[in-house]
Specification:
With about 170 residues, this protein is α+β, with helices and mostly antiparallel strands. It is built from 2 helices and 8 strands, in the order ααββββββββ. It has a domain of about 110 residues: minor pseudopilin epsh domain (minor pseudopilin epsh fold, 3-Layer(bab) Sandwich), CATH 3.55.40. The chain is about 35% helix and about 25% strand. It comes from Rubritalea profundi. InterPro entries: N_methyl_site, Pilin-like.
């Protein structure tokens, strides 16, 4: 065998180990997959608060609509464990409606805080506090209100407009 054949054979022999490029590509793929997994887990834990906030928004809009349609005030009662809707009782009304029309259960470990248009500070509802009553008049008005749901990892805040009971979008 000539020296030229030996040189060619050495050049085309498989090498042991990986090139730097192969290692970098592998690390990039692993980083992308692990980053996606972290985001997925973070979004899953925030899902309960998002769902509670969306259901509260729907409840507020339906309560405003019912107050206008039935031409009588309705109220949303907010406690640390439950949020429910009830029509305001009227003296001339014969039937006494005491059962809530709709309700939401606040998940265990979620704190509920409120910011009204009369105050500048958030106040957190305690388990022994009386329910906060948010009233919707038959003319379609309610107080502006911000509700904050928070657990150990996440915070979800929604602000409600006094005329529409819709979410106020903060444009920064």
């Amino acid at each position: 065998m000539t020296s030229a054949h030996k040189t060619l054979n050495k050049r085309f022999q498989p090498r042991a180990g990986f090139t730097l490029l192969e290692i970098m590509v592998t690390l990039a793929i692993i980083s992308i997959i692990s980053g996606s997994a972290v985001l997925f887990v973070a979004n899953q834990s925030n899902g309960a608060l998002d769902k509670l906030a969306q259901q509260t928004q729907i409840m507020a809009k339906e309560t405003l609509r019912n107050a206008k349609l039935e031409e009588r005030p309705f109220s949303i009662y907010i406690t640390p464990r439950e949020i429910w809707v009830q029509p305001e009782s009227m003296q001339f009304e014969e039937e006494n409606t005491t059962s809530p029309q709709s309700s939401l259960i606040v998940p265990q470990g979620v704190r509920v805080s409120l910011l009204t248009n009369q105050g500048d500070d958030w106040f957190t509802l305690g388990k022994n506090d009386a329910p906060f009553i948010w009233t919707f008049t038959q003319s379609g008005l309610c107080d502006s209100l911000e509700i904050r749901f928070e657990d150990d990892d996440n915070i979800q805040t929604i602000a409600f407009h006094s005329l529409t009971a819709g979410e106020v979008i903060d444009e920064d």
